[in-house]
Amino acid sequence: MNVLKYKKIYYKQVNEIYNNSFPKEERYISLDEMINKANTELYCLIDGDLVLGFIYLIFYKDMIFILYLAVNSKIRSKGYGSYLLKWCLERYKDKRIYLNIEEVKEGLEDYEIRRKRLNFYLKNGFYITDYISKEEAENFNILSNNTKININEYIMLDKVVADILGEPISNIIKIL
């Protein structure tokens, strides 16, 4: 099992994982757009000729934003997502790494799923920050590989992410 930079031979498998892992409204860009964007990298977790999962990273200065992390739905809960995250944290240990997850808040219909997702990231080296990214349809908890973040620098990273996605800039607010 290896993590390798995306190659065209992986296209069909990665696209299938992408489409099966994210609802249409969370597929902000196509796989074709992903592989052609500047300041991004797509890595695949490979076993032989099988793509087990992928991670899509956006780079800005000494920061990285994990936009997508996905594992083939037929083989989830076997440690492949953890493997990709640990690989990323080790490979980029000198970088500040961020990701957003749907806000974890009691009372929401899918609270348990969101809580499990948060626990997955917490168990794999991320910390929940004191900030929420407010977007049109959803609020997101901002997670980081550091316990403290410089919010002004994060906002600059968010602008880069928004530009890559062709989306409006998020409204970042501190949780009281």
> How much beta, percentage-wise?
25-35%
Report the radius of gyration as a whole number of Å. 16 Å
CATH class: Alpha Beta
The helical percent reads: 25-40%
Q: What is the distance, rounded to the nearest whole angstrom, between the alpha carbons of the first and last residues?
A: 43 Å
CATH topological fold name: Aminopeptidase
Number of discrete domains: 1
- Give the CATH superfamily: Gcn5-related N-acetyltransferase (GNAT)
**Helical stretch tally:** 5
**Integer average pLDDT:** 94
CATH architecture grouping: 3-Layer(aba) Sandwich
Largest sheet: 8 strands, mixed
Biggest sheet: strands side by side, in what order? 1-2-3-4-5-7-6-8
Secondary-structure element sequence?
Answer: EHHEEEHEHEEHE
Low-confidence stretches: none
Strand segment tally: 8
Structural class, by secondary structure, is alpha+beta
Global geometry: globular
Labels describing this entry:
single chain; about 180 residues; alpha+beta; Aminopeptidase; eight-stranded mixed sheet; 5 helices; about 30% helix; globular
Describe the 3D structure:
With 176 residues, the protein is α+β, with helices and mostly antiparallel strands. The protein has one domain (2-174): Gcn5-related N-acetyltransferase (GNAT) (Aminopeptidase). The chain is 32% helix and 32% strand. It has helices spanning 11-21, 31-36, 80-91, 111-123, 151-165, and strands at 2-5, 40-47, 50-60, 63-71, 96-102, 127-134, 139-144, 171-174. The protein has an eight-stranded mixed beta sheet with strand order 1-2-3-4-5-7-6-8. A hairpin with a 2-residue loop joins strand 3 and strand 4 (63-71). The longest helix is centred in the last third of the chain and has 15 residues, at 151-165. The protein is globular, with a radius of gyration of 16 Å. The chain starts with a strand and ends with a strand. The mean pLDDT is 94.
